[in-house]
Design brief:
Elements lengths: L2 E9 L4 H13 L3 E7 L4 E7 L5 H9 L4 E3 L6 H35 L6 H16 L1 H12 L5 H21 L2 H4 L9 H25 L1 H8 L4 E5 L5 E5 L8 E4 L8 E6 L2 E4 L1 H4 L5 E3 L4 E2 L4 E2 L4 E7 L5 H14 L5 H29 L4 H15 L2 H21 L2 E3 L2 H7 L4 E5 H5 L5 E7 L6 H12 L5 H12 L7 E7 L3 E6 L2 E6 L1 H6 L6 H12 L3 E7 L3 E8 L6 H10 L3 E5 L4 H10 L4 E3 L4 H13 L4 E5 L5 H6 L2 E5 L4 H6 L2 E3 L6 H35 L3 H4 L5 H20 L5
Parallel strand pairs: 15-22, 15-24, 22-23, 24-25, 25-26
Antiparallel strand pairs: 1-3, 1-4, 2-3, 5-6, 5-7, 7-13, 8-11, 8-13, 9-10, 9-12, 14-26, 16-21, 17-18, 18-19, 19-20, 20-21
Helix pairs in contact: 1-12, 3-4, 3-8, 4-6, 4-8, 5-6, 6-8, 6-13, 8-28, 9-11, 11-14, 12-13, 12-14, 13-26, 13-28, 14-26, 14-28, 15-26, 17-18, 26-28
Length: 737
C-alpha cells in the first residue's frame, strides 16, 4: 500500500459547513484513508493510497461539489504565502470600493428620500456593490445550490438578493403598493451596507487569521534566499538556497542565517539557535559541530558541509509538523461540526417561518415587516464564528509552541495535554544531560592483555547506538585503541550486546545480562562495583563466555533545569515518576537530586510501557517523557508522549510532542500552553453559541410585542461580521499570554 499524506489548499470555502462538506467528500473517495479540512487556514490534510487515487482524483471530487483543490506539486511555502497575500489584497480592494459606494446610498436613503428619481440613483450605485464587489457571495451560493448544498454565502446571497429584488420591484412598480394604501419601501441601502460590512468583517477576519499563521510565516522567512557555495577550485559563487545539494560546501558570514543543515568543517563561531530551539543563549560551533537551517551565525565565518536540504532540514521538518498540526482537528470540534452541518438549512427554515408568522399576524404591514425580519434572520446567523472558534485557537497555540521550541504534532495531543496528572520521566538524556563519560575501568586480566580487552570493547561498542556506547568509544578514541572485525553482533534491548571478535564470543551489558548468562562477579571486582554504585554511576560489565573480565564505570550529570522542572510539575498537582534501566543506587541518587519521590530502577523497555499502562488503568492521564529508542514503546503507550529533541529519531516519530531543545522546563510550559488553548477554545465556543442563540430570536422580532423593537438588517450585518472577528481576536490573545 503506497499511503502518503499531503496538504492541499482548498479554495471557495466561506464557513464551517463548507469545510465539513469538503472533508466528507474527500473521506468518501476510494483510496482515501483519512481526511481533515481546516476552515481557519483553508488546508486539507489527506492520507491516501497513491496507487488507488491521484491528487487530480481528489481535486475532481472537490470540484464536483463547488469548491477547488490546489494540487501544485511544488510545495513552496513562499509561494503559498504570496498567494495568501494576493487574496488578502483583492479582498481589501473589494471592501474599500464597497464601503465607498455604500456610503452615498446610506446618505440618500436616510436624508434625501424625497428627491425625484432617488430610487433609481440608489439602484445604480448599489447594484455594483452587490454584484461586482460582492460577486463572490452569489457565485459561491449558486455553486452550492447546484449541488443541493448551502453555506454562509447562501445566507448572504439570499438576504441581500431578496432585499435588492424587492426594492427593484418597488422602484419599477410602486403603484402595486400605493393602490393598497402601503408605502413602497426600498432596501438598497440595507443590501449595499450589508455586503460592505460583511466584506469589512471578512477582511478583518482574514487579517486576524493571517496572524494565526504568523508562526509558519516566521519559520519560512528564517531560511535565506541565497548562499555562498565554495567550488572545488576554492572560488566562491552565490546561488539560490533551493539549489543547494547534499555534499556542497557553504560559507556563512557573521550576521547571516544558515541555509541548510550540515557539519562545520572550518572555522569557529557562536550560533543563535533560538529560532528552532527556543533557547536564547548562543552555542559555540567548532569543527564537527552540527549546524541547522534558519539559525543565526553571530561572530566568526565558517565553512560547513550540507547534509540535509529542503524539507529534510530540521527547520523544514518543523514547518511540516506545525502545518499538519494546525490543519488537524481536535475532538472538541466534533460537536461544532455536527451543528455547522445543519446550521444553514435550519436558519433558512427559521427565516421562512419568521416571514410567514409576520405576514399572517401583523396585518397590512405584515409582508413588509416579515420581509425585514426574514432578511435580518438570514443576515445575523453566523456559522463562521462557530467554525473559527476551535481551529484559530489551535493554530495560535501550536504556533506559539513552535516559537518556544515545543513541536505539537496534532490538535488531539494539545487538547489532551492539559489533562495530564501523572508524568513519567526517563533518566538518561531526559533528567540527565545525556552525555555520559567514562570515569573508571577495572579489570582482572593481566596488564599485558588490558589493551587487547579495550580493543575488543571498542570494536563491539562501535556497532552500538546506545549513549553509553558512544561514551565508551569517545574515551577509547583518546587512547588510540585499534578496532577488530566484529561478527554475530546481537543487541539485547535493555540488557546489553553479544558479539564475536577474532572468533571469540564476548558479552557486554548490565548485571542482569551477566546473570542471564550465569556469570558471577569475581571477588576481585566486588569492592569496585559496590563503590561505583554508591556513587550513583552506571556499570557496564565486560565478559567472555566463562567469566566477567572487567567493569566499566560511566557517569551522567543532572541537567541544570531538571530540578526546577520537576518542582513546577509537582506544584501544579502532577505526580512525577522516574523510570530507568540503570542500577538502583544510581537511580536513587538522581531521583534524590531531582526531588522525585517515586522511581523504578533496572527496568526493561517493555516494563516501562507496562508501568505506563498500569497507571492508565488506575484512571490516570499519563505524559511520558523520554529520548531513547528504549523509551519509544512507553512513549507510544502514554496518553501524551513527549520526546526530547536531541534523542533518537524513533522516539520523536512515536511521540506526540517534541521538545526541540531537550530542556525539561518546556514540559510544564507545554502543559500550560495546552490549558490556555483549551480555555480559549471554550470561551470562543461559548460566545459563538450565545451570539446565535440570542441574535436569531431578536432578529426574528421576539422583542417587538413587548418593546416595539425590530433589529435593522444593517445592524445585523455588522453584528454577524464582527462576531467572527471577535472569536479570532480572542484566539490571538494566546500569542501574548
Amino acid at each position: 500500500m503506497n499511503t502518503i499524506k499531503k496538504e492541499f489548499k482548498v479554495t471557495g470555502m466561506s464557513c464551517a459547513s463548507c469545510s465539513n462538506s469538503v472533508q466528507r467528500v474527500l473521506a468518501s473517495v476510494h483510496g482515501v484513508r483519512n481526511a481533515s479540512v481546516n476552515f481557519a487556514n483553508s488546508n486539507a490534510s489527506v492520507e491516501f493510497d497513491s496507487a488507488v487515487v491521484s491528487p487530480q482524483g481528489l481535486k475532481d471530487a472537490v470540484v464536483a461539489i463547488g469548491y477547488d483543490l490546489v494540487i501544485a506539486e511544488d510545495d513552496d511555502n513562499e509561494a503559498q504565502n504570496e498567494d495568501e497575500d494576493e487574496q488578502l489584497a483583492k479582498l481589501k480592494r473589494n471592501t474599500v470600493w464597497a464601503l465607498s459606494m455604500a456610503l452615498p446610498v446610506i446618505i440618500l436613503g436616510m436624508f434625501f428620500m424625497h428627491l425625484p428619481n432617488v430610487n433609481y440613483i440608489m439602484l445604480l450605485i448599489s447594484t455594483p456593490v452587490l454584484f461586482v464587489f460582492g460577486k463572490q457571495f452569489f457565485v459561491n451560493a449558486w455553486k452550492q445550490a447546484r449541488h443541493f448544498r448551502s453555506n454562509m454565502d447562501t445566507l448572504v446571497a439570499l438576504s441581500t438578493g431578496i432585499a435588492w429584488l424587492f426594492s427593484l420591484f418597488n422602484t419599477i412598480y410602486p403603484e402595486f403598493w400605493i393602490s393598497r394604501n402601503l408605502e413602497p419601501h426600498v432596501y438598497y441601502e440595507s443590501g449595499a451596507v450589508i455586503i460592505a460590512v460583511i466584506l469589512l468583517g471578512k477582511l478583518l477576519e482574514e487579517r486576524a487569521k493571517h496572524k494565526t499563521s504568523d508562526a509558519i510565516r516566521k519559520l519560512v522567512e528564517l531560511q535565506p534566499e541565497n548562499v555562498v557555495r565554495i567550488l572545488a577550485n576554492g572560488n566562491e559563487e552565490i546561488i539560490s538556497t533551493k539549489k543547494v545539494r547534499v555534499g556542497d560546501t557553504l560559507l556563512v558570514k557573521p550576521g547571516e542565517r544558515i541555509p541548510v543543515d550540515g557539519i562545520l568543517m572550518k572555522g569557529v563561531s557562536y550560533v543563535d539557535e533560538s529560532s528552532v530551539t527556543g533557547e536564547p543563549i548562543p552555542n559555540i560551533k567548532e569543527i564537527g559541530s552540527r549546524v541547522y537551517a534558519g539559525t543565526l551565525n553571530q561572530r566568526g565565518s565558517f565553512h560547513f558541509k550540507a547534509e540535509q536540504v529542503g524539507e529534510k532540514t530540521l527547520l523544514g521538518q518543523i514547518i511540516k509538523v506545525v502545518r499538519q498540526a494546525q490543519g488537524s482537528r481536535a475532538p472538541i470540534q466534533k460537536l461544532v461540526d455536527k451543528i455547522a452541518g445543519i446550521f444553514v438549512p435550519v436558519v433558512v427554515a427559521i427565516s421562512i417561518l419568521t416571514f410567514a408568522v409576520w405576514a399572517l399576524l401583523a396585518g397590512t404591514e405584515g409582508i413588509i415587516m416579515g420581509l425585514q425580519t426574514m432578511v435580518t434572520v438570514l443576515i445575523i446567523a453566523c456559522p463562521c464564528a462557530l467554525g473559527l472558534a476551535t481551529p484559530t485557537a489551535l493554530m495560535v497555540g501550536i504556533g506559539r509552541g513552535a516559537d518556544s521550541g515545543i513541536l505539537i504534532k496534532d490538535a488531539n495531543s494539545l487538547e489532551i495535554a492539559q489533562k495530564i496528572n501523572v508524568v513519567v520521566l526517563d533518566k538518561t538524556g531526559t533528567l540527565t544531560e545525556g552525555k555520559p563519560k567514562v570515569t573508571g575501568f577495572h579489570s582482572i586480566v593481566h596488564s599485558k592483555e588490558v589493551r587487547n580487552l579495550k580493543a575488543v570493547l571498542h570494536s563491539i561498542e562501535s556497532h552500538s547506538e546506545h549513549p553509553l556506547a558512544t561514551a565508551v568509544n569517545d574515551w577509547l578514541k583518546t587512547e588510540h585503541i585499534e578496532k577488530h572485525p566484529v561478527t554475530d553482533f546481537q543487541s539485547i534491548t535493555g540488557l546489553g550486546v553479544r558479539a564475536k571478535v577474532l572468533g571469540k564470543t564476548y558479552i557486554l551489558g548490565n548485571l542482569r545480562m551477566m546473570q542471564e548468562n550465569d556469570l558471577l562477579i569475581p571477588n576481585e571486582l566486588k569492592k569496585e562495583t559496590r563503590d561505583i554504585q554508591s556513587r550513583a554511576q552506571s556499570v557496564t560489565y565486560i565478559a567472555d563466555e566463562e567469566k566477567i573480565l572487567a567493569v566499566l564505570t560511566i557517569s551522567d550529570k543532572l541537567k541544570e533545569t531538571s530540578e526546577r522542572a520537576v518542582k513546577k510539575l509537582q506544584k501544579s498537582g502532577i505526580e512525577v515518576y522516574m523510570l530507568t534501566g540503570d542500577n538502583q543506587e544510581s537511580a536513587e541518587l538522581i531521583a534524590g537530586q531531582a526531588f522525585i519521590k517515586h522511581f523504578r530502577a533496572e527496568m526493561l523497555p517493555s516494563q516501562k510501557a507496562a508501568f505506563v499502562e498500569g497507571l492508565q488503568k488506575e484512571g490516570k492521564i499519563v505524559g511520558m517523557i523520554g529520548d531513547g529508542i528504549n523509551d519509544s514503546e512507553a512513549l507510544a503507550k502514554a496518553d501524551v508522549g513527549i520526546a526530547m529533541g536531541h534523542g533518537s529519531d524513533i522516539a520523536m516519530d512515536v511521540a506526540h510532542i517534541t521538545i526541540v531543545s531537550s530542556d525539561l522546563l518546556k514540559v510544564p510550559e507545554a502543559i500550560s500552553l495546552s490549558k490556555e488553548t483549551v480555555r480559549t477554545i471554550r470561551q470562543n465556543l461559548f460566545w459563538a453559541f450565545i451570539y446565535n442563540i440570542i441574535g436569531i430570536p431578536i432578529a426574528a422580532g421576539v422583542l417587538f410585542p413587548f418593546t416595539g423593537f425590530l433589529l435593522n438588517p444593517m445592524i445585523a450585518g455588522a453584528a454577524m461580521a464582527f462576531s467572527s472577528v471577535s472569536v479570532v481576536s480572542n484566539s490571538l490573545r494566546l500569542k501574548w499570554k
